[in-house]
């Protein structure tokens, strides 16, 4: 999963150069895939702040209904911020969920003779 986030960050920083339109379509697909994985990851951990952030990224980089930013001066800061966010995911530690098991010993208050198991060896002298 971290490799996907690193690759998405690299793709975002590569988008700062001039590329053909096919690269930006590829970038939209990869960043959307990375954002979906991040949303799922943080939704499982119940960290909804990151779910909202990557939900916005998913909307902006959506390949199905794209939002075009025609001016490069608008697109470049967005690519830098999204690339840095993907790199931040690599270095974030996931929350450790502590599960403690409590063992309750139940001992009977009194042991009766009828509850004891008598082995057959003791019966035959």
Quick structural overview:
The chain contains five helices and no strands. The chain is mainly α and 125 residues long.
Overall outline: rod-shaped
The figure for the number of domains is 1
User: Helical proportion?
Assistant: 55-70%
Q: What is the string of helix and strand elements?
A: HHHHH
Structural class: mainly alpha
Radius of gyration: 29 Å
Can you walk through the features of this model?
This protein has helices at residues 2-14, 21-44, 48-60, 72-91, 120-123. The model has no long low-confidence stretch (mean pLDDT 84). It is an all-alpha fold and 125 residues long. The longest helix has 24 residues, at 21-44. The protein is built from 5 helices and no strands.
Characteristic terms for this protein:
single chain; 125 residues; 0% strand; mainly alpha
Mind sketching the topology for me?
Blueprint: H1 2-14, H2 21-44, H3 48-60, H4 72-91, H5 120-123
Helix pairs in contact: 1-2, 1-4, 2-3
């Amino acid at each position: 999963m971290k490799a996907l986030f690193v690759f998405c960050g690299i793709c975002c920083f590569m988008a700062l150069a001039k590329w053909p339109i096919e690269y930006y379509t590829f970038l939209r697909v990869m960043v959307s895939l990375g954002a979906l994985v991040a949303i799922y990851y943080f939704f499982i951990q119940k960290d909804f702040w990151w779910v909202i952030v990557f939900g916005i990224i998913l909307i902006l980089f959506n390949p199905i209904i794209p939002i075009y930013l025609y001016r490069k001066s608008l697109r470049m800061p967005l690519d830098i911020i999204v690339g840095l966010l993907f790199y931040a995911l690599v270095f974030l530690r996931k929350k450790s969920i502590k599960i403690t098991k409590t063992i309750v010993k139940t001992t009977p208050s009194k042991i009766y003779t009828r509850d004891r198991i008598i082995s057959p060896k003791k019966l035959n002298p």
